[in-house]
Amino acid sequence: MRAFLLRRLALGLATMLVVATATFALLHAAPGEPFAELMEDPRFTPEQRALRRKAAGLDDPLPVQYLRYIGDVVRGDLGTSLAKRRPVRALLAERLPRTLLLMGTALLLGFALGIAIGAWQAARAGSAGDRWVGHATVALGAVPDFWIALALLLTFGLKLRWFPVGGMTEPVTHDYMSLAGRIGDVAWHLVLPATALTLLILAFVARHQRAALLDTLPEDFVRTARAKGVSPANVVRHHALRAALLPTITLFGLSLPALVGGAVLIESTFSWPGMGHLAVESIAARDYPVVLGVTLVASAVVVIGGILADLLMLRADPRTRHG
Amino acid sequence: MSTPDSARVLLSVENLRTWFHTRDGVARAVDGVSFDVRAGETLCVVGESGSGKSVTALSLLRLIDPPGRIEPGSRIAFEGRDLMTATEEEVRRLRGNRIAMVFQEPMSALNPVFTVGDQVAEVARIHDGASRRAAWDRAVEMLSLVGIPDPAARARQYPHEMSGGMRQRVLIAMALVMNPALLIADEPTTALDVTIQAQILELLTSVQERFGTAIILITHDLGVVAEAADRVLVMYGGQVVERAAVRDLFASPQHPYTQGLLRAMPRVGQGRDRLLTIPGTVPPPTAWPSGCRFRDRCPLAFDRCEREAPELTNVVASHAARCHVAGTPLPAAAASS
Q1: Fewer CB in 10 Å around end: N or C, chain B?
Q2: Closest CA to A272 of A137, A123, A109, A99
């Protein structure tokens, strides 16, 4: 168990090093550079710009920059944002919880509802209800992610005006609210982005869970459960679903990278001020330290999520506990 | 063997027909099976793969899923109750309670994600409304009863931590929790090696002696039949082809199929180089031949067998066979070899 955790952590750190290196290379290979907007600002002379570049270390040879960056990261220093002039760590500390709130809500709801819907379908496979829900989840999975986000935004944000169109809080009044009011305000803003992300997750979880349960229902142990008098509902819920959850746990670990990508999209659509939003901003500004910091944290989230999925698997499947 | 005594008949099956309505046609897997099981006896059901033994067993508990269907007109009466008209809920309350079943694959018949103790205890919780605690104690007691050493510790193990023989004992323990009147064991020893097979058979016999449980033992192994059976049903092509007390069956088999099975059985002291086999295989249940279903493989088949399906008729009292030539002196072809 301990050896397993250590091995997974070491593997995770190696993954993060590869991600950091690849991001570094891609950033410097991509056209554009930091401080580009200063070029057009008449108050800055080319000399001042050069000074900025030099101060940020951008004129050093790439290998030197790379080693300096990795060295800083190992020491826990993620650098300072070139555009925002704030430590990257402070920026991330502010943004990460917001992203985790959005992703966590959507993950929880998406998996819970997806599992329930998939199980409901599998228990009545081939029926009209199963077919219609199946069409719905396939359609949901087939439309582009941004389309769902925009459709929700247009319908419930702009047309019906039930929910705010973006942001995480009311811009002015939020600071004057009571604690409960502030929490309610954030929850209110969370509804549309969380729903969009939940729908995306739910669609593939439901399809996957239906298939997994249909694979489990013909198993001998399910027949044993029926033969010992377990009620039909409990045969599905207790005996078959419990075993059919194992591949879903694997799916959870495997789907995290895609979910982080989806979160970036949803955050920019709903201007949710989280990490994804920050990533888009900083890429546009060629804010190298922030982009690198965001990527590192995102990969850390994926690595930790993967380890969590493995731990969950150890709990759920006794056969994985030895060896 | 006691004489037929209707008061002691526990299970009575009449004209059981379980058909599978598949896209390729109707598979008549069980097609007109009738038999009785008396309290406390062991009835062995013998036949090769595809003869309808397992489907018969599942039909008794109404565990047939679509496209399979127990056809109207089939009658299953257990302890005087008609199981065909009983509601699903009534049948569910019998399963694992008055009628219990042990399946043939001990490797896959237990749920991999629950401890064996939980799986045995569940039966007591369903049918007895036992508390978690009481059910667990009962499970440990049952595991001990079926000869599992250190049952309290074993109960906390998962199926993958046990050997095949141990798992089969767990399945038997699970079946015995409610002290059923009838235990259906579908090839309970097939997947096990020989010494373990003998132990499991002994266990079933001792259970029967202690609790007076009637057992339907499904097998393709005539050695098991000789050891355990009181009476025997021989099945072929979804039908009963011979029904007899075990002694009569081995002494004077009436159906050519039974005779073939007995000849195919290896015996100590008979120095044969090769075992005799019955030529051919069971035809698919979607296409039984006309007339007698065994005629393609039968050494005695003659023109009447093609035209006319034989009925299951008594050759002597309580020994019945489904064959046109049964009861008549055996022609030379069968007498030799």
Answers
A1: C
A2: A99
For residue A61, the model assigns a pLDDT of 86
- Whether the pTM exceeds 0.95: the reply is no
Q: Do A114 and A67 belong together in one domain?
A: no
**Judgement on whether residues A237 and A302 belong to the same structural domain of the protein:** yes
Residue A41 placed within a domain: yes
Half-sphere exposure in the Cβ direction for A5 (13 Å, CA):
6
The minimal CB distance from B126 to the residues A221, A230, A316 is found for A230
Q: What is the pLDDT along chain B (337 residues), one digit of tens a residue?
A: 444 444 488 999 999 999 999 888 888 888 889 999 999 899 999 988 888 888 999 999 999 988 889 999 899 999 988 998 889 899 999 999 999 999 887 778 999 999 999 999 999 999 988 899 999 999 999 999 888 999 999 999 999 999 888 898 899 999 989 989 999 998 888 777 888 888 888 888 988 998 989 999 998 888 889 888 999 999 998 899 999 999 998 888 888 888 888 887 777 666 666 667 787 777 888 888 888 888 888 888 888 888 888 888 888 888 888 988 877 655 544 444 4
CA distance A244 to B337: 54
Q: Are residues A151 and A294 in the same domain?
A: yes
Which tens digits make up the pLDDT trace of A145-177? 888 889 998 889 888 888 888 888 887 787 888
In a domain, A42, yes or no: yes
- Residues A121, A236, single domain; the answer is yes
The residues of chain A scoring below 50 in pLDDT are: 323
Q: Does residue B325 belong to the interface with chain A, where contact is any CB pair within 8 Å?
A: no
pLDDT digits 0-9 by tens, B248-265:
988 888 888 888 888 877
Q: Are residues A177 and A268 in the same domain?
A: yes
CA distance B75 to chain A (A): 20
The region, left, alpha or beta by phi > 0 then psi within -120 to 50, assigned to residue B79 is left
Residues A100 and A62 in one domain: no
Of the three residues A18, A49, A74, the one that is the final residue of a domain is A74
- The sheet that has B182-186: what strands, in order across it? B99-102, B182-186, B214-219, B42-46, B231-236, B239-245, B319-321, B313-316
Report CB contact under 8 Å: A224, B114: no
In a domain, A26, yes or no: yes
Q: What is the ipTM of this complex?
A: 0.84
A205 lies in a domain? yes
Chain A residues lying within 8 Å of B92, measured CB to CB: 229, 231-232
Q: Where in the sequence is the domain holding A62, given as residue range(s)?
A: 2-74
A46, A74, A102 - which closes a domain: A74
Q: How far apart are CA B114 and CA B124, in angstroms?
A: 16
Which residues between 270 and 309 in chain B have a beta carbon less than 8 angstroms from any beta carbon of chain A? none
CA B260 to CA B258: how far, in whole Å? 5
Q: Are B120 and B174 in contact (CB under 8 A)?
A: yes
Question: Is the domain of A173 the same as that of A235?
Answer: yes
- Total domains present in chain A: 2
- All residues of chain B having their beta carbon less than 8 Å from the beta carbon of residue A226 are 63, 95
CATH number at residue A317: 1.10.3720.10
